Amino acid sequence: MAEPTFSVCVYCGSRPGENAAFADAAKAVGQWIGQHGGQLVYGGGRSGLMGTVAEATRLGGGRVVGVIPQALVDKELANRQCDELHIVQTMHERKAMMAERSDAFLALPGGIGTFEELFEVWTWRQLGYHDKPLGLLNVAGYYDGLLGFLQTSVASGFMGEWQMGLLHASTDAEALLRTLVQDAGPDQAPIPLRSVI
């Protein structure tokens, strides 16, 4: 397998959700990454949207890198078909490794784990710990309420428009992925996030 030309970290649910559009979107994201010679970095599970995006990437010809804490190996059903499966000790180690191995970040529908991962990597970006692009795929209106609340935060003076501008939100998976990969650029210097978080 050729060296991947880019690496995208995808945050998403370990459940499939109630709307088939969520799984369809995860599949489309994985297929796009695979078909464009990319690498998926994700939480290492094989259930829910996590499993869907990983399998679609693999079948599309892409590399799959999973990172999962030992305590979740059984709970999240670790995906042994990953090209690389890293079993780490803590969530902090998991998130730092995922971030270090990625050129860009994309959140699909998910629960509080997905929210936490997105907000943390967004916080790291605003603090200058990295300069990698961030995306939010709003599938079937799933994130409408969140995006509305974030605008309320801006209007209330707790966030600036520049912070909102760091997050690319879209309903179009292909266009969003293209933007993230383009914004990432080919020659980013790696940042040892574990030394600053």
Automatic annotation (TrEMBL):
One Pfam family per UniProt: Lysine_decarbox
Protein known as: Cytokinin riboside 5'-monophosphate phosphoribohydrolase
TM spans (from-to): none
Enzyme class name: hydrolase
The enzyme's E.C. designation: 3.2.2.n1
Family to which this protein belongs: Belongs to the LOG family.
Domain of life: Bacteria
Protein's UniProt keywords contain Transferase: no
Catalyzed chemical reaction(s): AMP + H2O = D-ribose 5-phosphate + adenine
Keywords: Cytokinin biosynthesis, Hydrolase
Keyword Hydrolase attached: yes
InterPro entries, alphabetized: LOG, LOG_fam
PANTHER family named in the record: LOG FAMILY PROTEIN YJL055W
